[in-house]
Amino acid sequence: MSEQTFLVLTALADQPMHGYGIVSAAEELSGGRVRLRVGTLYGALDRLTADGLVEPDRDEVHQGRLRRYYRITDAGLSELVAEGSRREATARVALDRVRARRPRPDPGGSTA
Amino acid sequence: MSEQTFLVLTALADQPMHGYGIVSAAEELSGGRVRLRVGTLYGALDRLTADGLVEPDRDEVHQGRLRRYYRITDAGLSELVAEGSRREATARVALDRVRARRPRPDPGGSTA
DNA sequence: ACAGCACGTATCGGTCTGCGATATATATCG
DNA sequence: CGATATATATCGCAGACCGATACGTGCTGT
């Protein structure tokens, strides 16, 4: 699962949201780092829906504009926890491995 | 950066390794979850090299078989730490968001 | 002796995914 | 009345992963 897809699922973990709201939430959740493109969003939403991790919630009209809400499913919640745990573990292993590096012997050169 | 590429970089963080060794290390680092395919490995290695995150180290002959070693660069190390931190943060945000969910009201049905 | 398997490097094509561009429509602001 | 923000949706390109494939050597079992 890509980070983009992961963020979509994360956004929906709190409450049902509509497309544009998901884009905003993903940006906020990633600390402004990830700006979801609509092309990416709808592709991800389609795939998540096909996999049963997300489902359409309701349509609302807000200030004359249609808002289509999506909702995370129980399966989606489980998958989010599983994927989140995997990601946390992998990140930790990587950071630990870097920290465990002994200062490398200076290959020499200008410093000598 | 995909998890596969991330694992390649993580594997090399400890010491220079050759292709097959990276595959084994990635499998171990991911707790047996990710089995890197050679097609993936060489693609990733090419990209990482092009980006200056990894570089060829040396060629060795071990029991008549060629071993081509790769080494992580300083830039690769920095990138690994940055990516690892991002991943840790994103994972934490996701898991926190799930935990913050209040038990949803039972939508009703057979239980009623 | 020889077959089969593990090790080891490398390439190719298919497929999935992300993204930029584009299209459509309405409300608001200047 | 035009520009901008909100909002949904599709299309085609490019990048990345992976399965298949190819090639070669050493070790092991029969």
UniProtKB/TrEMBL annotation, chains A, B:
Matches recorded under InterPro entries: Metal_resp_DNA-bind_regulator, Tscrpt_reg_PadR_N, WH-like_DNA-bd_sf, WH_DNA-bd_sf
Name of this protein: PadR family transcriptional regulator
Superkingdom classification of source: Bacteria
One Pfam family of this chain: PadR
UniProt source species: Actinomycetospora succinea
Domain Transcription regulator PadR N-terminal residues, every copy: 8-80
